[in-house]
Structure formats: structure tokens, C-alpha cells
Amino acid sequence: MPNTHLEKTDSKTKIVQEEPNLKGTFIAVMFVFAFLVGTWFSVWGIFLNR
Amino acid sequence: MHMHRLEKLWMFIGGGTLLFFLIVLGIGAFIQGAQPPSCLTVIDPQRVEAHDPFKEENLGLQEVEGGDLDYVVNVVASAFNYDFGKDEEGNVVRKIRIPAGSKVMFQGTTKDVVHGFQVAGTNANMMLEPGYINQVEVTLDNPGVYTIVCNEYCGTGHQFMTAQVEVYEE
């Protein structure tokens, strides 16, 4: 006869949400930021110089 | 709501950039008085020569005595020509000669359809619309020959609609 007895039913499972690692995403966002600022200032430079 | 530290940081940078550009716009518009090339100055397109700047003798390069400006260039566009009047010998002006460093206001209108007026390679670039007078002010510091082009498609001869500005060193 199979043993249907559950030994541990009262244990609490602790749910730990780990912080995702966003370092790579942050670097990608900074690339976009640098591109926007770089193009804006170069166009402004053209405007001022001619 | 919980947010990642880096997420907060890049949202702050994004918001800051938006704020920076809005402040730049605000300074230009409200402190320096920047406005679009045309500020709703109207004219009857059927009778442009009734308006002083566009009388035959006032077309082309006009020196300005005193004031902020050195020169005014009056132009009447029509398909497919820029009318800068005539020189002393009675020849049609195709090239305008301006000394380097001059502050110039280009002032134009059109008799028929919408035309463009761009002095390619400078910051002078505006639309000429029937019924409106448009103006643009530039300081021409760099010597050279610049082509004036129509950059609004105006008909079959659009690509032939050109003139020249020569900026020379004194």
C-alpha cells in the first residue's frame, strides 16, 4: 500500500524577490542619452558656425 | 511602488533632459523674442508692388543706415524666378554681393504659389507664401558663393529657380 502520508505540511515558504540586475540596461540607456545629447549639440554647433 | 535605483536614475535623466529643452525653448521665445520667420504680416499677392519694399526700385540689396541691420534684401518670388530687381546698367540681378560680417535681413513674398527661399549653407531658410511677407535675419560671416534655392516644390520649373549670394571679404 502506498504511503500517502505527507510529512511536512506546516512549513512556510519564504518568497524572496531578488532585485533584477539592470546594469546592462542602464548602460544601454546611457548610450541613447549620449547619442541624443551629442546630435543635439552638433546640430547647434552647425547653427552657430554658419 | 518599488522601483529599481537605476530605473529612478534614468527616469530622472530623461525628465531632466525634457526640462532642459523646455527651458531652452522658453528662453528663446520669451526672453530673446524668437518667432517664426513669418509673423503674420499680410500683403495682397495680386499687387505686391503696391507695398514699399517690393516696388521695382526697392528690390534686391538695400543698405540700411543706422540701426541693428546692415542690409535688407527684398525679393519677390514667382514661378520660376527670384526677382531682385535690376542693377545700374539695367541688367537683371542674379547675384547679390554682400561684405562678410554683415547682418542681413531677407524679406520676401510671392505672387503666385508657395516658394521656398533658402540660402544654402547659411541659416537663411524660409517659406514664401502668397499673401504673406516673410523675413529672416542672418549674419553672414563666412566668405563664399552661396546658392539660393527654392525648396518648396512649385511646378515644372522648380529646379531652375535659383540665384546666388556672394559674401566677400572687404
Automatic annotation (TrEMBL), chain A:
Record keyword Transmembrane helix present: yes
Keywords: Membrane, Transmembrane, Transmembrane helix
Transmembrane segment boundaries: 26-48
Protein name: Cytochrome C oxidase subunit II
TrEMBL record, chain B:
Keywords linked to the UniProt accession: Copper, Membrane, Metal-binding, Transmembrane, Transmembrane helix
Domain (Cytochrome oxidase subunit II copper A binding) ranges: 68-170
Keyword Cell cycle annotated: no
Catalytic activity as recorded in UniProt: 4 Fe(II)-[cytochrome c] + O2 + 8 H(+)(in) = 4 Fe(III)-[cytochrome c] + 2 H2O + 4 H(+)(out)
SUPFAM superfamilies: Cupredoxins (SSF49503)
Localization of this protein: Cell envelope
Highest taxon listed in the record's lineage: Bacteria
GO terms for MF: copper ion binding; cytochrome-c oxidase activity
Annotated PROSITE patterns: COX2, COX2_CUA
UniProt protein name: Cytochrome aa3 subunit 2
Lineage: Bacteria, Bacillati, Bacillota, Bacilli, Bacillales
